[in-house]
Amino acid sequence: MHAVPVAVASQPPAPPAGSPQAAAYALAVLCWLLSAGVYIAAKWVAPEMPPWALCFWRLTLACALLLPIVHRHHEPMLALLRSRAAEVLIIGAIGLTICQGMIYTGLNYTDATTAGLIMALSPVMTMVLARIVLGEPLGIWKAVGAALSLTGMLVIIARGDLAALTQLQLNPGELWIVGSALCWALYTVLLRRSKFELELLPLVVLLLGAGAVAALPFYLWELFHGERSALHPNGLVALAYVAGPGGALMYYLYNRSVETLGAGRASMLLYLQTVFVAMLAYLLLGESLHGYDLTGAAFIVAGLVLANFIKPRQPVPSAA
To answer: Does residue 11 lie in a domain region?
Structure first.
């Protein structure tokens, strides 16, 4: 669903239009527009294709499409698999198999707009898990931002009725999406800790392949229980989209933008995905934002601003 995240670093001011970086911004925006389209396509194809079948075929086809592009890196990719195959498989399974499978399952019970809003919480979850797993400092503003974003998520999944939380009257679709956001955050943290010695796009291809291998048992389980795909023309178009433009092309564009913009600016543009999901869901699926969606989104945005843009004041050294 997302491109593979990389470490966020501070970046210089954006250059004027017409420069290579301006083109890279356009590629990054297109990347997140294509990524948002995956939510729409997954919601569209849900009646015709079970969630784990969609997950397996998206990962498999995207990996197959990108594999020839990284042919010069096949030797270091094989070397990494020989030395750390289990680690690659576990990280790919968490971030690309379980994460996507939970999104596709959740979209059977909730709308694409709500799913996009909840997934915007994943960067804050990443900061909290990075504190727990990697020992990275959280800081007061990041902690307050995390609390605000968590409040926004609770407003959305309770549909504005916080009493539903105490009575456990929750939509299972929102809970699946929350689980997906948590898996994405864990995946991001584990990827940082692993520090694979491989360029970004070849690593993406390896993780896509690992995710496809991990999705195969879930796909076979669906087949064993009679949950088979019955794709009509619309479903075939949706599958082609999530594997091609929303899969292989999206990952390729993201990596091209990272090469020019750097990890920091390219990653921060991820938040455009939430806006694009809401716009596409309104135009193509007839969905509309509810009051509790807007309230929850306001809390999440406020939390993201506090966590990412407000820096603690540095002590001024005393004069000698």
So the answer is: no
